[in-house]
Automatic annotation (TrEMBL):
Binds 1 divalent metal cation per subunit. It comes from the Bacteria. GO terms for cellular component: cytoplasm. It comes from Actinomarinicola tropica. GO terms for biological process: pentose catabolic process; pentose-phosphate shunt. A divalent metal cation binds at D36, H67, D176. Belongs to the ribulose-phosphate 3-epimerase family. Pathway: Carbohydrate degradation. The keyword Protein biosynthesis does not apply. It is an enzyme of class 5 (isomerase). Its cofactor is Co(2+); Zn(2+); Mn(2+); Fe(2+). This is Ribulose-phosphate 3-epimerase. The gene is rpe.
Amino acid sequence: SRPIQIVPSVLPADFSKLGEECRALEEAGVDRIQWDVMDGVFVPNLTFGPDVIAACRDHVEVPFEAHLMVEDPDLLAARYVEAGCGMLIVHAETARHLHRTLGAIRDMDASPAVALNPSTPVDAVRHVLDLVDMVLVMTVNPGFGGQDYIATMEPKVAELRRLIVEGGYDVDIEVDGGIGPGTIGGAASAGANVLVAGSALYRDPEGLGHAVSDLRARAE
Ligand code: DX5
């Protein structure tokens, strides 16, 4: 089985001090930091331009991934790589030519990944599993943190896992949305090994470090 990775979403962090917040997350032992990039068109919310991420890049060593919830990922991808994101996650629903877009990200020496909204079938990524390092199965409808986990995504994660294993692909499965102590076990059992948590990390009364280690233990 693939190593468990706990990846925080910075969405619930204090936006007035994102550099310090990234340092706190790194000290809490996270594996990567996810920037939820939203353009106000593909999803009804607007968050980080590349300059915000670039401003935080040198505050920490931990890798950054950009979850591009944007209408036109081809337009912006290079900017987020330049800003310091080692992995770019493109929504299958937004790339007119997903196969080409993922190849272009690899050509920028970044790690390509693809995301599926809850209603999008696994089949949408069947023909690009050889191009990606990770598939993100959304377990909420993207746009906001703090939403309820959509448990019906677990069979979808299991189906994707089967596709990856049968094809012999070296691909991680990430889930994002509503992941916390009560839901992470089901997501991991279904086959997810990269788990994104936002609000669950910040609401742990014992702090980020405890939240990260507790989630990691529940996913193992
Ligand atoms: C979806 C966002 C959220 C965020 C995590 O638009 O991407 O899923 O990462 O939010 P929580 O963990 O609070 O559901």
